[in-house]
Amino acid sequence: MSRDELSALFGEGPRLPWDLRPVLRLDPPAPSVDVAWQLRGGDTVHVEIRNDGLVPLRLERLELVAELDLPAVGGWFWIQGRYMQMDTLVRAFGAPPEQGFDGRYRKPVEGGVRYVSRELAVLSLPGQPAPCLLIGSLDPTRFFTDLAVDVDEEERRLRTLRVMVSLEGTQLAPGERLVLPELLILTGDDGWELAERYADRVASRLRARRRAAAPTAWCSWYELYGDVSEAAVLANLDVIVRRRLPIDVVQIDDGYQSVTGDWLVPNAKFPSGMAALARRIREAGKTPGLWLAPLVVAEGSSTYREDADALLRTPDGHPYLVDTWLGRCAVLDVTTPAGAARLAAVIRAAVHEWGYPYLKLDALAFAAVPAGRVRYHEPGTTALSHLRRALEIIRDAAGDEAFLLACTCHFGPAIGLVDAMRVGPDTAARWAQGTEPSVKRALQLSLLRGWMHRRWWWNDPDSLVVRDQGSTLTAAELRAQVAGIALAGGLTSAGDDLSRLSREREELVRFLMPPTGVAARPLDLSDAPVPRIWRARLDAERSLVSVIQWDDAPAWVVPEEILAPGEIAYDPLRREVVGKGDVLLEPHDAALWQTASPGPTPRVVGDSGHVAFARLAHEQVSGRLRVRNESGGSRTVAIESRGRILEVEIPPRRRYWFD
């Protein structure tokens, strides 16, 4: 069907920003269907589908396609993934293929290439009056929405812009109407600001949970992995208490359960039982935390054998099975009474009977299965609506006060139900290894999702890993890791076996806890594929500024080109004032600067003890500055006084005066 024929059938609708004139395409085509769309409030596209025929219809996909012929040279496309492992990056048109990304966002099409973003995308073309265009789904809780651009093989011309909504075989009875999730369309000069505006709109609609603060945590996974034991947890608890580490939660990760799916039966490494261990943690003044993958069930588990009615089925009635890092597993169907009851019982037991009010919920994405591949007990269920229903059951069973951290979870269905979200893939004690867990990959994806932070939840960039043993991270790579986590500003956890951690590396844990709560913004979003320069504004006078050298070569940095006029900068990781000379970054290195705008003296302008001066009491008293180190470790403090910068080492619990 030609564009003119489609326009005659559906109508072109109102004109959109950038003079876009999309047409609607319904799959499968149906003459009895009426598809209407309109622009509401100047920025919101509303689409309705009505079955005017006499027989039911099965709808698979709706597309809005804008045919274009625009120069792509100098433009870019900010690509989003819909859960933590899916790539997010800035694709500069015409650039070589990106390294270290999984590439699922790139699809060959006839005569060119298609780049696909999920739920949200920002397109920038220099020839437009407002160079940035954002399109995003305002309710990403039922249908998958893909945003795509097609370019020619040389990526010199932009051919089409399309929105693709997967309807997953939704049934539409005669006379019935389907209202699709509304699309937000914004234009402006700053793509990052547009993403923040989008996040605010979605947060308002889905009533995002916005906790004022997030706990710090120790996580057993990133050194102990599946070898975690009751003895190891207690040994780390002892270090946390004895060394006065600023850690609130002791979180036991994968490895305590007897079998995946039999979550309420611990293995022999936890002889006292999980409730008794939680009690020990509470008695030490800390919050017990527990990892669960409550929606997957291993084939060999008793739950699989004895609770068959709770499992998701294929169209021919067999249990739906999926290969996961936890083994071959079935998935709970929470639209069945048995599946919902099973899920609620596990969560209630973990939180209210065992005593773990902090849950790290993993492998959630495996429950988001498109309806065409499975047979949900409740008709009309889609992949995203099933996952959201599961999260609603979890929140109800856990209670409003429980802290829920989602992991391997589609972002949209979790908004309003979880308190924190892993926004990047797993880290590891190495810089990079393709798409395998690594510091570089975890940080790159986490930083580019900073627009979500404290709008939808607290972002979790994954744990800090700073141990000496079993690590290939260089000193430069450690600096980059610390800088990246500091810039994320989100949930902060330590992933090492603290009982084996040196005091020097322990200071890096203290440095990042508690988090600043402020996510950094890139200086230039078009610095593809992941920007190098970031700034987090802590308040009106102070910022964190960082330059991260993602590449395998050294690079020179010119501070005067990055800092504001008169701004003072201190590098707490190198314990030195940033001068006027250039700074050399090693491969995989970072410069992290605490910056202060011009102000009265004497005052603190830098601190190696904490990224945002926590546990450092400092106040003006009769024109003098009183500074006290209230932490358990020594720290270097930079003081501006009478036009000079003093660097002073302050031992624990000591107080100094400065004129």
Describe this structure in words.
The chain is an alpha+beta fold and 659 residues long. Helices cover 19% and strands 32% of the residues. It has twelve helices and 39 strands. The strands form eight sheets. Strands 2, 3, 5, 6, 9, 10, 13 and 14 form an eight-stranded antiparallel sheet that branches. Helix 7 runs parallel beside helix 8 and helix 10 packs parallel to helix 11. The longest helix has 17 residues. The chain starts with a helix and ends with a strand. 50% of the residues are buried.
Task: Tag the structure with descriptive keywords.
659 residues, globular, 8-stranded antiparallel β-sheet, alpha+beta, 8-stranded parallel β-sheet
Question: What is the typical, i.e. mean, pLDDT?
Answer: 95
How many individual β-strands? 39
Morphology call: globular
The percentage of residues in β strands lies in 25-35%
Number of helices: 12
Query: Alpha-carbon distance between the termini?
Result: 80 Å
How large, in whole angstroms, is the Cα Rg? 26 Å
| Secondary-structure class | alpha+beta
Share of residues in helices: 10-25%
Spans of at least 5 consecutive residues whose pLDDT stays below 50 are 1-11
